[in-house]
Amino acid sequence: MASSPSRKHAAPLLALVLLLPCISTAATAQPLASSEAKALYRVRRLLGAPPALAPLTTAPDPCAIRPTPSLSIACAGGHVTSLSILGDRQPDPRWRGALPSTFSVDALFTTLTRLPALSRLSLVALGVWGPLPGAKLLRLQSLQTLNLSANYLYGAVPGQLARMYSLQSLVLSRNWLNDTVPSLSALAFLEELDLGSNSLDGAFPEVPASVARLVLAGNNFTGKIPAAAASLAHLRFLDVSRNRLTGWIPSAVFALPALRHLDLSRNQLTGQLPASTACADALDFVDLSANLLVGARPACLRSRAVLVAGNCFADAKQQRPSAYCSPAAIAASLPPTQGNGGGAGRGGGKGRGVGMVLGIVGAVVGGALLVALVMVVVLRRARRRHQHPEAMYLPKSPLVTPAKKADGGKSPAKVAHHKIATTADKRHASQAARVNTLEVPAYRAYTMEELQEVTDNFASPNLIKDSPLTQLYNGQLQDGSRVLVRCLRLKPKYSPRSLSQYMEIISKFHHRHLVSIIGHCIVNDQENPTIASSVYLISECVTNGSLRSHLTEWRKREMLKWPQRVSAAIGIARGIQFLHNVTAPDVVQNDINIENILLDKTLTSKISDFSLPMISTSKNGKIFSENPFVVQEENDTGSAQPTEKGDRDDIYQFGLILLEVITGKSTESRRDLESLKAQLSEALAEDPDMLKDMADPTIRGTFALDSLSKVTEIALNCTASDPSDRPSVDDVLWNLQYSMQVQDGWASSESLSLSVKSQS
User: Fold this and answer.
1) Residue 536: exposure state from Cβ atoms within 10 A (0-12, 13-18, ≥19)
2) Helix, strand, or coil (residue 734)
3) N or C: which end of the chain has fewer CB within 10 A?
């Protein structure tokens, strides 16, 4: 049967209609520009190839990657319009999640400027560090959303952000940003501003009227909440907690029509909220806790679940005594009279009388509090001295004073020679040494099979150091503990039996300030089984870096202020004291090098490379220590060394460490060392300001001058050219503890001064 003419015409028309979506899709789904694809791959490389960007390596088209919580790329017209990356490098105070030192924040944002259509950029928890490059950001004029939270950005908020007029959301929270915030009032479309958890300071930032979410919590903003905050008609969420804001709260803030969340807690806000204060209907969360508010709460705050603990409200629970909220401060911070001022003349005399009374009461109460505070401090110190006489300032040990200048000054007196202790004298370690011993995993002998398992069969990725004399491997025990495995060659004269006795001695070397050896494995010579050829030593792994890295790397340097440096030095001295007292003769000629001083996660210092002596007796009956390991190919300077000289070598090396702790600089040559010592000696004797200037800039403002002077004096004496002029480790430790107590006293007085100022 023949088909009708209308049906013949309808079929092609239907096919055309069905093809239209395909034609439209082909027209709009343009391929991504090659320059932008290259930019995305470069971003991945600059960010250290985070797992979130792994799909980029396999996807033929970045725009076709399926969105996930960790990666989202959107494109239009052959251009990237949105890039959102969520990493796993959460920020921490020790910067363990930051990208390596080779990272460049300028290079990253220069690359991002090659995405001209980018309207949304989110780089969260990726370890990005450095100052925000404002000029590069300004080139991203299409940007509407910028989220760089949970990174390691520092420095000021760049002023160029105030000219990114398309911004609707700006989130820079959880970084290390500081300084003041530029005015952002010109950003007419900005709806979200989150600067929380940084170190920003200055006055309350100027924001546009369009803002709906404002987070400034966890900074150091000061001054009053501006009256302009009460005109933010679109504001729904306001969090300014954990700052240092003062003065009265503009009561109109509570009545903002869109406000739902208000957090003003943990500031220094004062005064009494007017009884006429009104609250918006939408307001369902208010936190005013830990301020200095007084009086009765307005009715609209009593009818809601409002957090007010830690104030001085008269009608609420969990409040502080009224004296805590200074009456003088309250009188000064009462909100100004509302209205046209017509009643000011009639009520002015009464107001001034109330203010005068409150001021007098405040002065009396403040004075009484100050006297009580001083009495408490004095009594606590007196009680501490009575109960713990050893906590008093230590008398100065007879350290050699630095050499005076040639103009009439006498040469320094020499330290009296300390007698060498006998075996009986040192049978028991000194009390100072025993106090610092630690409980560590039980020492035991390991088999070669166990070491192969620990090091993954001595795999090359685990090899840290390889030389003709020693190899050092990373390892992991069955319980997950990380260890180091060191292989040392033995001198060809020791039997396995004598080595076992030697290891029994080594197993006792446990101390808080020594890297602990927790096991060994003796390997016999294949040709002569009665001779031991090498020993594997298994020790704890300290992963937080060396003392030098904490003095030179900018990310670590900020953690090591003067008190932490003195504490680390005291730890090293205690470790040396232990080595000099644990056996007879001393364990001396240790490699007390600043690179061999490790700091654990609590910044406790540990000596990582110390001598492991074999006690021997010469033909004339003199006791000496001998290193059984091959330390040099031809000339073994570690064998048969008398202890009278060796202990002062350790003190000299320790003095070099102290000089670097003080100045932050290493001495590369003998000439540099002598020049530095001469300058420090001159500063110590004649110019305290010069000594302050020579100190590492990182620690300025954190030290007591007397404490710094005492440590400088110790360092100069430890590095005396004549070994007999160098102090003993007991003298050094005594004086370092004295320096720390001077520092603690200075810090307490500074805290008291600040407390008094805050109360006044």
Assistant:
1) buried
2) helix
3) N
Q: Which two tokens stand for residue 622?
A: 């003199």
What residues are paired with 74 via a beta bridge?
A: 82
Parallel, antiparallel, or unpaired: how do β-strands 145-147 and 120-126 relate?
parallel
Q: Which residue has the tokens 């011993």?
A: 437
Measured between its terminal Cα atoms, the distance across the chain in Å is 108
Residue-wise DSSP of 213-258:
EEE--SSEEEEPPPGGGGG-TT--EEE--SSEEEE---GGGGG-TT
Q: Any idea what DSSP says for residue 329?
A: H
In 10 A of CB 469, how many CB atoms? 12
Give the pair of three-digit tokens for residue 331.
């009188």
How many residues in total does the chain contain?
Answer: 760
Mean pLDDT, the chain, as a whole number? 77
**pLDDT tens string 601-657:** 888 899 887 766 655 555 565 555 566 565 544 333 333 344 445 678 889 999 999
Q: Centre a 10 Å sphere on the Cβ of residue 16 and count the other Cβ atoms it contains.
A: 10
| CA–CA gap between residue 575 and residue 547 (Å, rounded) | 15
DSSP 56: G
Amino acid at 668: E
Helices 705-718 and 562-581 cross at an angle (nearest 10°) of 40
Strand partners, 155: 177
pLDDT in tens, 251-285: 899 999 999 999 999 999 999 999 899 998 889 88
- Do residues 478 and 492 touch, judged by C-beta distance below 8 A? no
Assigned token pair, 13: 């028309």
Of 726, 704, 723, give the one whose Cα is nearest residue 715: 726
For 316-351, letters b (16+ CB in 10 Å) and e give: beebeeeeebbbbbbbbbbeeeeeeeeeeeeeeeee
3-class state of residue 624 by DSSP: strand
Is the link from the previous residue into 642 a cis peptide, with omega within 30 of 0? no
| CB crowding 63-93: b at 16 or more within 10 Å, else e | bebeeeebbbbebeeebbbbbbbbbebebee
Q: To the nearest 10°, the Cα dihedral for 668, 671, 673, 679?
A: -130
- pLDDT tens by residue, 477-523: 887 888 889 888 776 665 666 667 677 777 777 788 888 888 888 88
Structural element, H or E, at residue 303: none
Residue-wise pLDDT tens digits, 394-453 = 333 444 333 333 333 433 333 333 333 333 333 333 333 433 444 456 788 888 889 999
pTM score, whole prediction? 0.46
